[in-house]
Specification:
By secondary structure, this protein is α+β, with helices and mostly antiparallel strands. Among the domains are: 130 residues, Alpha Horseshoe (Serine Threonine Protein Phosphatase 5, Tetratricopeptide repeat); 89 residues, Tetratricopeptide repeat domain (Serine Threonine Protein Phosphatase 5, Tetratricopeptide repeat, Alpha Horseshoe); 203 residues, 2-Layer Sandwich (Heat Shock Protein 90). The two termini are 43 Å apart.
């Protein structure tokens, strides 16, 4: 498991002072590493300056951890500066470096960041590919905070794809899995919390749940203000203002829109332009048309400076201006403004805006009592609005098709994984531990050569039955609990008599609540854990004891407890490492079984857990064995 990230409290002024006094290149690298990691979320321009020096130092003194954080921080900075193409190039360089020299966790963190950049570039397939790679790693190396970051990224992935319900689930998952104690979270995880709340705010706003949208965006503002994450603060103020407008709370909206304007951040000029436009709308709602037109003029001028092809925002501004001028009775100016808005709407091919502008024209001509033109423009409004509704229907149908295809693809992936797991299990069952098979056959041969034919015959029959069961069950996904227990008893009996030569005893206990002949369980689900206990815990003991207990957990689950009085996992690992014949021994049976249980949990929506507990003597502290608790889903008993 990855170690949890530690939050290092940075006092930028103090660290800047240390940097100015430090001449040693490695010490400067360490200080810049801390400062750049902090400024990437709080002062992006200063971070950019530090990263330039850090790269020069790294060319002379390559340190793996510093290299990793250099690539990560540079990606974050470029992303914050809207240089998505540059960030993608940095990501590729970082991944190439880490594949050769980095750790699995470092590579996973870069892939998660790369996924966010890919979303900003509109490459959703690449984003999903990077997140899948990260998830595969986390299956073997769980890390709660990285899981939350992946959930956050997937939330935006679904948001861009128009799947708002799944996006909401992912954002809520990201928020809940991150620790909520601020003092224990590193700044990077707080940044992801802000992203998750911002995503929720967008989804709620899209669904016109404006109260929830306000609450989510206020959470973002609180986090950013409290932790000094100012890079996108103007945008967060703007989102709160827009959400308040959705609620009709103009005064509250104006407060936050004014905060956008007061935030002197040249990186968020587009947010300031939108704030001017929305303030113009608010001012007009309050009856001050002259001030509203002035604010709209500022918004239009800024938008044209930033992006003269931003037809959508320019159309909205021109149409608002036309409405105000119509109410003022300045019909000539209103006609010019609405003509401009119409030109922008046509360039954008926005049928909703086209419908609205034609409606504004109809209102204008109705005011001037040119009812023929008013009627013609109203008809055009109706025509464009009908096209808009048809377009919305097509989009919704496409979204449903995309959701269906995504769900089908996921289901096919799971089925393929399950099929692969079944094949692995089949091979596993056909290839039982060779130590067990060799010892059993060797013991039977000994009885034969010792003229103990009857004993040899009895054990040979047991052994043949066990092998036959193993091969027969390899084609079954589930069997009755009764057959599973019978198989375990035969397996343990042969181990006791042949492999361990009576140095082993065992007990199999079944609660009375369990109807063994009716209940179905996944085939041979317990045997790998029993084999693991024999191979690791009891192999070197002379008085080994293994107990297997089955009890009903709930209506859908059986709890199986496999307990041994062996030497414990720590000592077993040490012995294995010192034994050249067993150094490469890996319990693939338990790995495959846990993967199978995970797939069964996904398909049946059950919580299936495997919990391993080390047992110790309370007085001496010495290991006294191992207990494994397996939560087995109850399945349909397939009778042939």
């Amino acid at each position: 498991m990855f170690a949890a990230s530690e939050r290092i409290i940075i006092q930028p002024g103090l660290w800047e002072q240390k940097l100015s006094q430090q001449q040693d290149p490695l010490q400067r690298l360490a200080i810049i590493d801390q400062l750049a990691g902090h400024y990437a979320y709080t002062n992006v321009l200063r971070a950019q300056q530090l990263l330039i020096e850090q790269w020069k130092l790294l060319q002379q003194h390559e340190v793996e951890d510093f290299m990793f954080r250099y690539f990560l921080n540079k990606m974050v900075v470029q992303n914050q500066l809207y240089d998505f193409t540059g960030a993608a190039e940095t990501a590729r360089q970082g991944i190439d470096y880490l594949e050769a020299a980095g750790s699995i966790k470092q590579l996973t963190e870069l892939q998660i960041e790369y996924a966010g950049i890919s979303i900003n570039l509109g490459d959703l397939e690449a984003a999903e590919r990077f997140l899948q790679k990260a998830l595969k790693v986390l299956k073997n190396f769980p890390d709660q905070q990285l899981h939350s970051r992946i959930a956050c990224r997937r939330g935006y992935l679904y948001l861009h794809a128009g799947n708002h319900s799944t996006a909401t689930e992912q954002f809520l998952n990201a928020v809940s899995t991150l620790e909520v104690k601020e003092e224990s979270l590193p700044l990077r995880d707080e940044y992801f919390r802000s992203l998750a709340f911002a995503g929720l705010g967008q989804v709620y706003g899209h669904n016109e749940e404006y109260e929830k949208s306000v609450r989510a965006f206020l959470q973002v503002v609180d986090l950013c203000e409290r932790l000094g994450m100012s890079n996108r603060l103007a945008w967060h103020y703007l989102n709160v203002g827009r959400a308040y407008l959705g609620l009709g709370e103009v005064a509250s909206a104006k407060d936050f829109l004014q905060k956008v304007i007061d935030t002197r951040d040249d990186l968020s000029l587009e947010a300031r332009a939108s704030a001017y436009a929305n303030l113009g709308f608010c001012t007009f709602e309050e009856g001050d048309a002259t001030a509203a037109l002035e604010l709209l003029h500022r918004a239009e001028h800024l938008h044209q400076e930033l992006n003269p092809n931003d037809y959508s925002n320019l159309c909205i501004i021109a149409s608002w201006r036309g409405r105000i001028e119509t109410e003022q009775g300045n019909y000539e100016a209103a006609q010019a403004s609405l003509t401009e808005a119409l030109r922008y709407a046509e360039a954008e091919e926005d049928y909703k805006m086209l419908a609205e502008v034609h409606s504004d024209f109809a209102s204008l001509y109705a005011e001037t009592e040119d009812f023929r033109l008013a009627y013609e423009y109203q008809l055009e409004h109706d025509r464009f609005f009908e096209i808009y509704l048809e377009d919305q229907d097509r989009r919704q149908q496409q979204e449903l098709v995309m959701k269906y295809q995504a769900a089908r693809k996921q289901q096919e992936t799971e089925l393929l994984e399950l099929k692969a797991t079944r094949l692995q299990l089949k091979a596993l069952r056909a290839q039982m531990n060779p130590h067990f098979i060799y010892n059993a056959l060797n013991s039977i041969q000994h009885f034969i050569t010792s003229n103990k034919g009857a004993i040899a015959s009895r054990y040979l029959a047991k052994f043949a039955k066990l092998m036959r069961q193993s091969l027969d069950y390899s084609d079954e996904e589930s069997i009755s609990l009764e057959k599973e227990i019978e198989f375990l008893q035969d397996y343990l009996y042969i181990n006791e008599k042949l492999r361990f030569e009576d140095r082993l005893s065992y007990r199999v206990m079944v609660d009375d609540d369990l109807e063994e002949d009716i209940l179905g369980v996944p085939t041979m689900i317990v045997q790998p854990y029993v084999e693991n206990a024999l191979e690791h815990g009891l192999r070197s003991r002379k008085d080994g004891l293994i107990t297997v207990q089955f009890k009903l957990w709930d209506d859908d689950t059986i709890c199986c407890i496999v307990e041994d009085n062996g030497i414990g996992r720590k000592k077993a690992l040490a012995q294995q490492q010192n034994d050249p014949n067993r150094q490469n021994y890996r319990s693939r049976g338990t790995q495959i079984t846990e993967k199978r249980l995970e797939l069964l949990r996904q398909s049946k929506n059950q919580e299936v857990l495997v919990k391993t507990i080390d047992l110790y003597d309370e007085s001496t502290g010495e290991a006294t064995g191992t207990r494994v608790e397996i939560m087995i889903p109850i399945m349909e008993n397939q009778v042939r």
